[in-house]
Specification:
Strand content: 5-15%
Number of domains: 3
CATH architecture of the largest domain: 2-Layer Sandwich
Oligomer: single chain
Largest sheet: 4 strands, parallel
Distance between the termini: 78 Å
Helix content: 25-40%
Structural class: alpha/beta
Radius of gyration: 30 Å
CATH class of the largest domain: Alpha Beta
Strand order of the largest sheet: 8-7-6-9
Length: 428
Amino acid sequence: MALGEKSFFAPFSILANLFRKPATICYPKHDLNVHGKPGPSLIYRGMHANDLSVCIGCGNCSRVCPTAAIAMTTDPEAVSDSAKNPERPVIDYGRCCFCAFCVDSCPSRSLQMSREYIYTQPSLKEDPLEEVKWKREMFTIRPDHRRADDPGWVQTRHTSWLDLKRQDMGQAGADERVTGFLEIVHGFSREAALREAARCIECGICTNTCPAHMAIPEYIRAIYDDRLDESVRIMYETNPLSATCGRVCTHKCETVCALSHHGEAVAIRWLKRYALDHLSREDRIKAALDLKGTCDHPKKVAVIGSGPAGLSAAYYLAGLGHDVTIFERMQKAGGTMRYGIPAYRLPDDQLDAEIAAIEAIGVTIRYGVSIGRDISFDDLRAGHDAVIIGIGLFDGRSTRMTGWEKPGVYRAIDLLRRHREGEEIPVE
């Protein structure tokens, strides 16, 4: 059957509703208690109610509304919270078609519809223009009840539009792990990444919680559009170490994900990793170079230490057009990222690719240079307009447990560094 054609029997499908109870009632013709309690159907789509203590201001209701009846306005009484946006929905009932799409797509389930359907007041306006203005204001309201006193349509697991389950992430089994320092987490396939990216409702609450304030909805949207180069370019605007964060980040952004209220958070960290994993080193460098700018009066800047702080500072300064040199006492850059994190969590090739992108925008790294031994701090200051100290916290701390001072007992950070430097660690 061609698109648009209907069966001869299509009109008879209405007979399926012949014996169903009406959603509304026609009083006094119908019994007021036809649904077990006075009023319309128990799933009637009437006036809205919104529990403001639960509403997170994500704006998903506004985005899905087919009649553009919902606007998000700032609530002056909203409590400042990184897990919530300060906006709340305001509904124009002159536009609303009572479809309940907003309710079925609400991730916090704060929005519901009541069985109330009468909302009129007598007009005392004599001027027709004032009458129009008054009606517009009267029918544009912010539903701010905690819960509907007489609830009608509410979201359920069966009516929800949201995909509340994240894609599974594969991991290496124990038999593979014992063979060496292979990376444990496999990473998303293209199909899994696109499915996971499709779950994001692009509310931006995660951005508020991210310490780097990365544009998370934007780079996830680029992943969904299969534009990995654009996704990485967006990441590099706020985080030059995105591949590292795609593996070892504490992903606090996921703790406030809108979907986590009644389901599983979007796998933001794994999506970040996916984009970097599937982009070549050359394309990563190109994404970084796209952000490089110039300045009229470039300064000469020295950065001590090539850990995450030093590399990030150098990246942004070079991106602004300044002449930046990093002084690193170790033979490789990365700091604790390289010497404190095992390769099965953060492979060297991924860290090397990030450092290559930072060097490509103009950062020079001098290895094996110890400040105070190979060059004095005074000479460093004299030869540069500014000096940034990013030496990190490389000294281990003891827990002072009984026996901590005995031979064969090592501080964790010291043990990891010695292993990463290739030193043979005796095991007794």
